């Protein structure tokens, strides 16, 4: 019966501790956003107080000795919170043991310290995936080990008390300690984990957007100045396409870790859906904007853009950054956040690894872009799109090689809209798919109408990455060629380097299908992106188009050497070469000197409407 009495007393002891843990569950959520050391200290204090409470309602075995669940509490504190929590909890329990005294004091202190060591070992051994089955297995094993721990150190108690204690409470320990360990673990760690997951992104360890928003809104309410920065991880979608979701998750974890380590005091960050992160940087004093250097955000970009190692492979990303400031104005969260998005959108449109600070003119830019998107959706149906054709000439003979089809848009309200303004919008909205099909069909129909079937003139048509990556695109090209009667060898499809690098493996398969149709393939804007000898040899291009930026400054000795080297490089790989943007006779002289094959530009002709092409064709 005595053993049963001890079990009942331990149950009472356990109930008291659980009640305290339930109270702790109400307190813990407020510490979730604290830094690492404060959180671990709070865990240590909560478990330390729970251990002392357990010691205040023990099961007495004899004079100077008693049994309680304090060492289970000790082990769980170390397992959940690590060494720092273990030290804090041990301080509470050991101090109370020394204060209480008795013949079992020394053995109790040693048992507590041993329980702390057991917990710390499990803390470092714990599996990262935290499988559900281990929610029971780990605390069960800890409970058994702590029971052995208590019995082992009980051997230090004088013989009479030792024999009586081992006889009456050893079985109780091996029943109640594992049970208490499982229950305590559930009421603290499992419940804390559940509450933490409500506000913390488990994958990145950063606050969920809801918690982040409430933190920023508090700063707005208190008129605390801050920077709100929106980061976009460029190329993440490509990484997902070429790898797996697990690789994406590993990458996001590493990015989040770098970001967390970089965050200054009084600052926070969160991950939004997809590939974006929000950062709020404030001054700890909360009275003015933080003092930052001129390259502050560029240094963050450089940090996050450094290569990542995933599955023993290097993984590269670039970062676009949009920044807005809050200086205590009468603004709301819903007014501030769109400014960051506006700045980010402008950064992404500006190039790679760009940083843009919000200003009022950006809003006008976004408004104009929105208008373009709205009107572009009906441009095809309302016959606002048209094609012009720029001639290409062979440099050494002066013979007409063919034409490049160039898309134009005349809108009744917007006027003539630049392709550099509406083509990116068409690609982002996927309107480029129907528009691109229309361009290809119209250009081929022009060839059928005015170019003799025996002619060797070539028609060049630009295609976007969205079109190329559509698995039905090669079939569409074949269908249009058959309908218009244009020989495949007279159609040349132009692709930019960025189009290829967004999804190289898929692009390679599509290009080979187009090659099998007999279509010519040209690499456009060569030299402005990711060119490498490896993929130039690997992909089935017939022609390289050197970007006009290299031609415009060819009179400069340095640029002349660069352009000459590029031409010689392409010649060695046996590509035909077209120079874009030819405008002066000086440029023409140098291009001939470097044996460039073809050129197009305003020196020869501006892009022409269809009705002005016939004289050029008849001259041939």
UniProtKB/TrEMBL annotation:
Subcellular location: Cell membrane
Protein's membrane topology: Multi-pass membrane protein
InterPro entries referenced in this protein's UniProt entry, alphabetically: Cyclic-di-GMP_PDE-like (IPR050706), EAL_dom (IPR001633), EAL_sf (IPR035919), GGDEF_dom (IPR000160), Nucleotide_cyclase (IPR029787), Rev_trsase/Diguanyl_cyclase (IPR043128), Sig_transdc_His_kinase_LytS_TM (IPR011620)
Pfam families, A to Z: 5TM-5TMR_LYT, EAL, GGDEF
Any GO molecular function: cyclic-guanylate-specific phosphodiesterase activity
GGDEF domain sequence ranges: 224-360
Residues that span the membrane, as ranges: 6-28, 40-60, 72-95, 102-124, 136-156, 168-188
Main subcellular localisation: membrane
Keywords from the UniProt entry: Cell membrane, Membrane, Transmembrane, Transmembrane helix
One BP annotation, GO: cell wall organization
GO CC annotations, alphabetized: plasma membrane
The keyword Chaperone appears for this protein: no
Domain EAL: 369-620
PANTHER family: CYCLIC DI-GMP PHOSPHODIESTERASE PDEF, OXYGEN SENSOR PROTEIN DOSP
Name of the protein in question: EAL domain-containing protein
Organism: Cohnella endophytica
């Amino acid at each position: 019966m005595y053993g049963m009495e001890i079990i009942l007393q331990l149950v009472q002891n356990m109930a008291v501790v659980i009640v305290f843990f339930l109270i702790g569950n109400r307190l813990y959520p407020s510490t979730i956003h604290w830094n690492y050391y404060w959180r671990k200290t709070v865990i240590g204090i909560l478990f330390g107080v729970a251990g002392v409470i357990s010691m205040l309602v023990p099961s007495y075995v004899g004079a100077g000795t008693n049994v309680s669940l304090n060492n289970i509490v000790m082990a769980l504190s170390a397992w959940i919170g690590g060494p720092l929590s273990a030290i804090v909890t041990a301080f509470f329990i050991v101090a109370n043991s020394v204060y209480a005294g008795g013949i079992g004091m020394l053995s109790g202190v040693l048992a507590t310290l041993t329980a702390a060591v057991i917990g710390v070992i499990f803390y470092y051994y714990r599996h990262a995936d935290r499988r559900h089955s281990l929610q029971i297995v780990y605390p069960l094993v800890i409970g058994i080990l702590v029971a052995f721990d208590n019995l082992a150190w009980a051997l230090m108690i004088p013989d009479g008390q030792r024999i009586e204690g081992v006889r009456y409470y050893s079985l109780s320990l091996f029943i109640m300690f594992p049970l208490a360990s499982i229950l305590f673990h559930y009421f603290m760690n499992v419940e804390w984990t559940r509450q933490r997951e409500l506000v913390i992104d488990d994958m990145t360890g950063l606050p969920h957007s809801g918690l982040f928003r409430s933190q920023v809104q508090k700063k707005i309410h208190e008129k605390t100045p801050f920077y709100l920065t929106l980061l976009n991880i460029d190329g993440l979608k490509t990484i997902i396409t070429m790898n797996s979701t697990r690789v994406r998750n590993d990458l996001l974890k590493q990015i989040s870790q770098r970001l967390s380590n970089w965050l200054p005091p009084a600052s926070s960050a969160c991950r939004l859906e997809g590939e974006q992160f929000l950062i709020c940087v404030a001054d700890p004093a909360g009275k003015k904007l933080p003092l930052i250097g001129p390259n502050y955000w560029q240094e963050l970009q450089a940090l996050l853009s450094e290569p990542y190692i995933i599955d023993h492979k290097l993984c590269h990303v670039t970062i676009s950054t949009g920044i807005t400031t809050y200086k205590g104005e009468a603004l709301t969260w819903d007014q501030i956040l769109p400014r960051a998005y506006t700045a980010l959108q402008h950064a992404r449109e500006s190039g790679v690894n760009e940083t843009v600070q919000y200003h009022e003119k950006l809003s006008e830019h976004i408004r104009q872009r929105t208008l373009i998107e709205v009107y572009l959706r009906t441009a095809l149906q309302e016959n606002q799109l048209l094609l012009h054709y720029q001639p290409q000439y062979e440099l050494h003979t002066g013979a007409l090689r063919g034409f490049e089809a160039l898309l134009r848009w005349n809108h009744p309200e917007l006027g003539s809209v630049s392709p550099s303004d509406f083509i990116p919008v068409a690609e982002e909205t996927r309107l480029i798919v129907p528009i691109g099909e229309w361009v290809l069909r119209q250009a081929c129909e022009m060839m059928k109408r005015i170019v003799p079937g025996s002619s060797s003139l070539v028609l060049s048509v630009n295609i976007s990455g969205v079109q190329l990556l559509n698995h039905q695109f090669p079939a569409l090209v074949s269908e249009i060629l058959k309908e218009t009667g244009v020989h495949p060898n007279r159609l040349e499809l132009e692709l930019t380097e960025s189009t290829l690098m967004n999804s190289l493996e898929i692009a390679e398969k599509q290009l080979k299908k187009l090659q099998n149709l007999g279509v010519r393939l040209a690499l456009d804007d060569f030299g402005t992106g990711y060119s490498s000898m490896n993929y130039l040899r690997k992909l089935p291009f017939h022609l390289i188009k050197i970007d006009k930026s290299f031609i415009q400054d060819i009179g400069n000795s340095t640029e002349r050497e660069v352009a000459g080297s590029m031409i010689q490089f392409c010649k060695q790989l046996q590509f035909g070469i077209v120079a874009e943007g030819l405008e002066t006779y000086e440029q023409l002289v140098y291009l001939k000197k470097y044996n460039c094959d073809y050129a197009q530009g305003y020196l020869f002709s501006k892009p022409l409407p269809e009705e002005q092409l016939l004289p050029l064709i008849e001259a041939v």
